[in-house]
Structure formats: C-alpha cells, structure tokens
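Morning!

This is the sequence you dropped in the shared folder:
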Amino acid sequence: MSMLRSLSDAGSTVVLITHATKNVAIADQVVFLAKGGRLAYVGPPKLALDYFQVQDFDAIYHKVEHQLSPQQWEERFKSSGYYKKFISERLLSLPQQNQAPAPVKPNLRQQLVVLCQRNLSILLKNKLSLALMLLGAPILGSLNFVLWKPDLFSTKTGNAGQAISTLFVVVVMAIMSGSLATMPEIAKERPIYKRERSVGLGLSPYLISKLVVAFVLAMYQSAVLLYLMLAAVEIPGADTNTGAMYFTLFLASFGSMVLGLIVSAIAPNPSVAPLMILIVLVFQIVFGGGIQPTENLNTNPNAKAVSELMLSKYSFENLVSLSRMGADVADDFCWQKGESRRKKLPALLIAQCNCYNKNVFTKCDFPGLGKIKRTSSLNNDLLKANLLIQSILDGYERVLYNDVSRNNWNLIYLIGGMIWILFMILFLKG
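The structure's back. Tokens below.
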C-alpha cells in the first residue's frame, strides 16, 4: 500500500480492491459496495467513519450487510450530501473532450529493460529455481567422471565406440539442462502475459527478454559441460578445437532453451510442460545419431527427415569431427575407397596409407588399435584392425567427413526457425 501511495503521489492513477482495511486511510477516495454492486458510499476514507457512524472500517462490513438492504443503502447515499459533493459536482467539473485521447505508444526499448530487470529479480529471489539452473550442468557434467575412463580416445588403450558415446552424452546433457531450465518460463506467466499484452506490452520485448536470459545461461552451461568433459576425458582435438567445441555446445544449449520456451508457450498449464518436454527430449536422443547412427536412417525417409530437425544431430556430428578421433582414417586414401576398390589398389599406393595394411599399427591414430593383441600372423592382426575401423565407419563414416562450419550454420538456421515459431505462438496466444 505504501508503494501504491508513492505511485499515486508521482502522478499515476491507482485503483485497487481490498478487504484489508488497516491501510485504507492512506487512499484519497474509498468506495463501499453493498451486495449486488449497490453503491453504499464514495468519498474520503475518514469521512466514511462519520457517514456510517462506526469506529473502524471493519465495522462497516457488518453494518452494510445487516442494518439495511442493498437498495436502501444506495438510496440513502444518493440522497446524502456526500453524493452531491463527491460524484455530481465532480462529474460536472470534468473537461469535455470531442474525441477520445490517443493511446500512448509503448517504448519498446524501455519495456525490454524493465522485463530483463524483472526476470533477473525473479530469478534471484527464487533461490531453488536459481540453484537448479546453476547446478544442473555441473551435476550432469560430473557424471563424465563416473561413466568414462580418461583414455577413451587413446590409440593404445581407448575404445572408439565409447568415445563416440561420450560425445553424444555431453550433447544430450547440454540439451537436457537447457530445455529443462526454460520449460516453465512462459507457462507460469501466461495470465500475466495476457494481461500486460492487453495494456501495451510489446511482443518483441517480451520474447527478447526471455532470449537474453537463455543466451547468458547457455554461455554458462556450455562452458561448464565442456570443462568437465575435457577434465574427465583426454580428447586429442581439444588443444586446437576448444573454441569450436564450446561454440557447438553453446548452440546446442541455447537452441534447447528456445525449444523449452516453445514447449512452455504451447503447454496449457505449468504441470503439463514437463511431460511435453520429456517427449521432445526422447526425440532428440533417438534421432540424434548417437544411439541409432543417421547412416542407418537412410532407408526410412521419414525418420531421416525428423533427424534433420534435431539439434542433437548437428551438435553430435560436430563434436565427433572436432575431437579428431577418426581424423587419420578420414584422411586416409585407402579408406576413402570402397572395400572392393581397396583390394585392387597397387601395393605402392597402399604403402602410403597410414591406417591401412601394415602401417595401421605404427602410423594410425584411432582409439583402441593398440588393444589388438599382436600374433605371428600379420594378416589376422590386420583383419582385426580393419574390422575395428570398419565397425565405426559402418555407422559414422559420414560423421568423420562432416563439415563443422556447415553444421553450425544448420544449427543457427534451426534456432532462428524455432524463434520465429515461438514468436508466432506468443502472437496467437496473446
């Protein structure tokens, strides 16, 4: 009430309904209504006590309800001098206007500043929500120390299959922590959003204010997840591609936050949003390429089309390329040929291939090659090495030849499309 009083003193008109009468005296005018909306009194609060002949405001409720009928209270007030002084004379003093005043055009930049400040204030006051947002990425990222061995990418002791799983799990962590962080944001504010839209709230400032928070949070979450991944597992490409890895995880995290906002905007209420986001996360996992390689989806055009819309697909492919786990194989002349053509290559060309024939044990970097037990039969040893490499190429050959820059642009286009969809949903619901 003190804040409303200060707003009124600053020139704003404040109208409120209250049954808490302790601070009613600080209002300029007070209105008491009998049952059915009958007007029992209008005027200064202090004069109301004299009018009803009571000692405090609480007593007015009992008196209005039991002493006279609602119609009698209305007639009593209209016949009093209070009605003439505080209604009739004031109506006559109103300036006559020939046309309705034009609505004030909202200042969109100022709205954006206010909305960002409000989002920050709400976030800082809700300690539990803030803790979940900040601790989600560290908790998920810490699982890397439990799930994986540090030498997964090592040529001598690594495991190519688990190395790929590591990169996919980190992408899933980024998408999960991002989407869950923003999933309740719009659903919980829908009544407020609709009310404020009706009195001039711009759609663009509202949407941008949500994206600003998502942008900052994505920067934090992707940095934490990348740091914990590199701390838990030694990745050969990390020395030169750390920045590119961070950018990929940032796009995955920020895109998933936009996805969470879309689910939040669609959800009929906050309790339904978690169920909807779980369905979205299942699609990101199933069609992301880590569990079922996208190479295997080529036979099903519908499944492949769905995978092209997944944030997890492009992010996962980028991390595999940036990790350099299959770089030697991807650059190898022999492995770039089909199996039938490899067998027909002359010995002179085969000798130049680092990951094929006898050079595979001395010049090729590929996780797990060193775990192949060497025997007296070189041909058997080479067969085991080729089968190890081929088992990865069967599902992830295209990923090893992936264009990181093109995938980043695909992610950016996908995120831009999701922001447009979110804008349209808010527009239609507002």
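Headline: The chain has 19 helices and two strands.

More detail when I'm at my desk.
O.
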